[in-house]
Design goal:
The chain is of the alpha+beta class. The chain contains two helices and six strands, in the order ββαββββα. It has a single domain, classed as Thiol Ester Dehydrase, Chain A, CATH 3.10.129.10. Strands 1-2-4-5-6-3 form a six-stranded antiparallel sheet. The mean pLDDT is about 95.
């Protein structure tokens, strides 16, 4: 199963930063088990949402030639839960270039202005065409930024 955790990209600056939204819906199957009768979005899924948003930043920054593949979580702090019905505002910013074609990013997630996660992570920059159809990803990006609906 594949989880697509970015519902809307609200802002981006190629090579610098990106902002997006994750809507937590009661119908998401991971909530059934985390935790039964007390559903919360797993912290690792918040981290994954930040990493997916980083992939989109890398894609748009490289004219859809590259993608970000996480290799190491440097640090990750959680400050509360995201519940069904919450809208998680995600922000990712480029921190530095690492060694051998890697980059370091910092991501933050908020619900109603309250911090829920802050993470720093490193990853490889890989060719997007190795994992996805670049044309389809570019079209999907336009949906995420709402360009196709204008």
């Amino acid at each position: 199963m594949r989880y697509l955790l970015i519902d809307h990209i609200t802002e981006y600056k190629p090579g610098g930063s990106i902002k997006g939204i994750k809507n937590v819906a009661m119908s998401e199957d991971f909530l059934e088990f985390h935790f039964p009768k007390n559903p919360i979005m797993p912290g690792v899924m918040l981290l994954e949402a930040l990493i997916q948003l980083t992939g989109w930043l890398e894609a748009v920054s490289s004219d859809f030639k590259n993608w970000f593949l996480v290799t190491k979580v440097i640090k990750s702090n959680f400050y509360g839960f995201a519940f069904p019905g919450d809208q998680v505002e995600l922000e990712v910013e480029f921190i530095s270039n690492g060694e051998q074609n890697t980059k370091v990013y910092r991501g933050t997630g908020f619900v109603k202005g309250k911090k829920k996660i802050v993470a720093e992570f490193e990853g490889e920059i890989i060719p997007l065409e190795d994992i996805e159809c670049t044309e389809e990803q570019e079209k999907f990006f336009k949906v995420l930024i709402r360009e196709l609906r204008r």
